[in-house]
Specification:
Number of strands: 12
Largest sheet: 7 strands, mixed
Strand order of the largest sheet: 9-8-7-6-10-11-12
Shape: globular
Radius of gyration: 20 Å
Structural class: alpha/beta
Order of helices and strands: HHHEEEHEHEHHEHEEHEHEEHEHHHH
Helix content: 40-55%
Bound molecules: glutamic acid
Number of helices: 15
CATH superfamily of one domain: NAD(P)-binding Rossmann-like Domain
CATH architecture of one domain: 3-Layer(aba) Sandwich
CATH topology of one domain: Rossmann fold
CATH class of one domain: Alpha Beta
Strand content: 15-25%
Length: about 425
């Protein structure tokens, strides 16, 4: 175990503390100014609201809504809104900080933010979700802004929710400002390529890492955990590159096939099956906890946070992990992966394709001029390749793993901005 990973591996109850643990390790290695570290340890603004919503049964239910702005040193804050039952102040704070680092790694002119509503979107009707989204937009009218804070989809939300939030925001402000939110449907100012962008970023990062490892895509196998927006596109794009997908899974079922799984068939299946994998017959069903530790070369956790832990990390067989989800690896698992010489392309680099194309969407909205899908993809791929190379080089230069190297890459950029902008 290296000294660099020991400090970050102490048990952390809070997700934000897990972020700070890694920040501290990176700060020490790169000799970050203590003042800048202090600025980044404290989110700029935290908002909590209560949202009364008329439910279909005719009774009012109160929901908790959050928005945390972690930093605005590199530009207006950027980050998604998640609808999930485990949303809480600590989680939103951690996710907001990750957005600051993610935007900096991808070299986007943004700070970081995150929002969320504690709710179970699967248990709510479309009408209830619309009223909840509009209530949230109304309560955040002074937080959001095209040059202030720009939300986007995250877990449990999609273009549909972005459309409601945009519409409510525009009604309240009396302006038509499509760039105030990204990840919108195409018809109302969304960008071509945005839907698949996070999965595409996972693909580009995987190819870049395989190249460094002297492995050809046609010679490797992959397991993808999660078949939502990130996992489904990642599995499709990786298989289009010739990588054999041997394992897939979502919250309903997991599957494995040594011969490889026909990802086109899986896509066709989930479209007919309420977007879930349960009941798929093109591979053998396995227990959910077997998926991450099954035999493969590349592992893509693209579902939830904290799934690669101290318990299962010793059993992971992959040589390469590419984190499609935010925070899938706990700080305690990091040193175990490091000791096993597993290369881990961290979330703040691996899943930054989504926010990168969000940035392109915002640029197109501001210009009122729209690009082709090929233009978007080409610009995205270049940005991702540069970001990967930057992090890889920092890993070599600072003799550390890619996760800490990604933090260093981000901190180098943010440090300059904090210093140049100064304080009161
Ligand atoms: N929610 C996504 C993320 O965690 C996208 C954020 C955005 O596009 O602003 O990166």
């Amino acid at each position: 175990m290296s000294a660099q990973t020991v400090n970050a591996s102490q048990a952390h109850e809070s997700m934000f503390e897990a972020v700070l643990a890694r920040l501290d390790v990176a700060a020490k290695i790169m000799n970050l100014s203590e003042e800048v570290a202090q600025v980044l340890r404290n989110p700029q603004k935290q908002v909590k609201v209560s949202l009364p919503v008329m439910m279909d049964v005719g009774k009012i239910q109160i929901f908790e809504g959050y928005r945390t702005i972690h930093s605005t040193h590199l530009g207006p804050s950027k980050g998604g809104i998640r609808y999930a039952m485990d949303v809480n102040a600590d989680e939103v704070m951690a996710l907001a900080a990750w957005m600051s680092f993610k935007c900096a790694v991808a070299n986007l002119p943004y700070g970081g933010a995150k929002g969320g509503i504690k709710c179970d979107p699967r248990a709510m009707s479309v009408g209830e979700l619309e009223r909840l989204s509009r209530a949230y937009a109304a309560s955040m009218k002074d937080i959001f802004g095209v040059n202030r804070d720009i939300p986007a989809p995250d877990m449990g939300t999609s273009g549909r929710e972005m459309a409601w939030i945009l519409d409510e925001y525009n009604k309240i402000t009396g302006e038509d400002n499509p760039g105030v939110i990204t990840g919108k449907p195409l018809a109302i100012g969304g960008s071509l390529g945005r839907d698949a962008a996070t999965g595409r970023g996972v693909m580009v990062n995987t190819l870049a890492a395989l190249k460094k490892m002297n492995l050809k895509p046609s010679e490797v196998t992959a397991v993808v955990q999660g078949f939502g927006n990130v996992g489904s596109h990642a599995a499709r794009l990786l298989s289009e590159q010739g990588i054999k997908i041997v394992g897939i899974g979502d919250h309903t079922a997991s599957f494995y096939s040594e011969k490889g799984i026909d990802i086109t068939a899986v896509h066709e299946y989930v479209i007919k099956n309420n977007r879930v994998l349960k009941g798929f017959t093109g591979a053998t069903e396995i227990a959910a906890d077997q998926l991450l530790i099954s035999k493969c070369d590349v592992l893509v956790p693209a579902a939830l946070q904290n799934v690669i832990t101290e318990e299962n990390a010793p059993k992971i067989q992959a040589k390469l992990i590419v984190e499609g989800a935010n925070g899938p690896t706990t700080p305690d698992a990091d040193p175990i992966l490091h000791d096993k010489k597993i290369i881990c392309v961290p979330d703040i680099l691996a899943n930054s394709g989504g926010v990168t194309v969000s940035y392109f969407e915002w640029v197109q909205n501001k210009a009122g001029y729209y690009w082709t899908e090929d233009e978007v993809n080409a610009k995205h791929d270049i940005k991702m390749e540069i970001a990967f190379e930057h992090v890889w080089n920092n890993a070599t230069r600072f003799k550390t793993g890619m996760r800490i190297a990604a933090y260093i890459t981000a901190l180098q950029k943010i440090e300059q901005a904090v210093t140049l902008k100064g304080a009161y």
